[in-house]
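re: the backbone from monday

yeah here it is again, tokenized this time
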């Protein structure tokens, strides 16, 4: 039949193309059916048992298909339940993984701790050995201590009542104050001499300039040198001061009995003091005129209260402590104590330098005053105060 259709398609001069294709497919399908029919025939003829097995499998497949059809309405819920359980399983798996990590960390720490424990046990073992040896040494030391205590008890003296009383007094008053004077003045007169000697020299200079003019008027009128005028007014009074020193020390030594550790040094130092005091008193009178005599007396009062001649200057008010280092009599009193009763000469040399500076400074100021007195002013022609 197929060959006829093919020939028909070939022999027809203008067949419809679509119909020709359909016929060709039908011819092929018919041939396939014929082949399958032959195969089925062979199968039924040779293997009847295989068909029976196939029939049984088809029955089983039908049964399973029916069960699947029965479960099909609940398949969505079963799937959701399965998904929920899978999620719970996943969460549990994560917790198990975290626990496994912690377990791993704990195992590592436990391993480290076991190593440390092993080392500590070793140290403990060594310490136990040292303790055991120390206990033996302690036992030996305890025996030596007991023996020493027995020997000490045997050496404790047994004092009688008198010895115990004497030692009790020593324990009650272990320190006694012992005072010693290195350069003691034999009497009150010797102790107060460094204070009254400069006082007499200051008063002598003050009285001398009440009689003698501090600046020579004739020299001032002649226009002489200021330094020459100052020295001319100072030298006579300074010479009188030196004579006063000689007379004063003669009376104190031979008349009253003043004993001096350094007699020559005392006289020489007092000569410098007389020169210094006369220079200072001269300047007060040359600069301030009649008012200078009052200032000289005020300066004397300040020096007497701040020189520390009768009592320590530290017990005086703060004002006198402040002016104490700047007045000449302070250095005179301290140096005379060293020269009369004894002691180091360092303060004496320091006082000599200070008094020399006072003397030179006073003479310089007197020279300036002399230069000013050579210029006549209305105040000099008509002074406000005259004595």
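seq for it, each position gets an aa:
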């Amino acid at each position: 039949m197929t060959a006829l259709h093919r020939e028909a398609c070939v022999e027809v001069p203008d067949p419809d193309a679509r119909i020709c294709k359909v016929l060709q497919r039908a011819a092929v399908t018919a041939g396939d059916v014929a082949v399958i029919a032959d195969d089925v025939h062979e199968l039924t003829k040779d293997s009847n048992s295989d068909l029976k097995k196939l029939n049984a499998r088809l029955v089983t497949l039908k049964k399973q298909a029916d069960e699947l059809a029965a479960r099909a309405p609940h398949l969505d819920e079963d799937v959701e339940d399965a998904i929920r359980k899978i999620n719970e399983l996943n969460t549990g798996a994560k917790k198990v993984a975290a626990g496994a990590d912690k377990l791993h960390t704990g195992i590592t720490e436990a391993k480290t701790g076991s190593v440390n424990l092993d080392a500590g046990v070793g140290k403990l073992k060594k310490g136990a050995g040292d303790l055991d040896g120390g206990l033996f040494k302690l036992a030996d030391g305890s025996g030596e201590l007991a023996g020493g205590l027995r020997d000490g008890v045997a050496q404790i003296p047994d004092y009688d009542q008198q010895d115990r009383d004497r030692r009790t007094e020593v324990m009650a008053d272990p320190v006694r104050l012992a005072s010693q004077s290195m350069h003691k003045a034999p009497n009150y007169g010797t102790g107060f001499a460094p204070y009254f000697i400069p006082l007499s020299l200051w008063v002598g200079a003050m009285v001398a300039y009440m009689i003698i003019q501090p600046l020579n008027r004739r020299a001032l009128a002649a226009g002489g040198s200021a330094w020459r005028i100052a020295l001319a007014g100072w030298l006579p009074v300074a010479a009188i001061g030196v004579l006063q020193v000689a007379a004063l020390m003669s009376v104190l030594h031979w008349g009253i009995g003043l004993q001096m550790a350094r007699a020559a040094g005392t006289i020489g130092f007092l000569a410098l003091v007389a020169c210094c005091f006369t220079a200072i008193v001269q300047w007060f009178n040359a600069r301030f005129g009649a008012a200078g005599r009052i200032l000289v007396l005020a300066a004397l009062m300040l020096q007497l209260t701040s020189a520390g001649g009768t009592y320590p200057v530290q017990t005086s008010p703060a004002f006198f402590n402040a002016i104490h280092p700047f007045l000449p009599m302070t250095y005179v009193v301290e140096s005379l104590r060293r020269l009369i009763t004894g002691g180091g000469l360092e303060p004496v040399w320091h006082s000599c330098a200070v008094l020399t500076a006072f003397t030179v400074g006073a003479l310089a100021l007197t020279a300036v005053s002399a230069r000013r007195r050579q210029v006549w002013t209305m105040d000099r022609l008509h002074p406000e105060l005259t004595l």
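The chain has 14 helices and no strands. Residues 1-15 have pLDDT under 50 and may be disordered.
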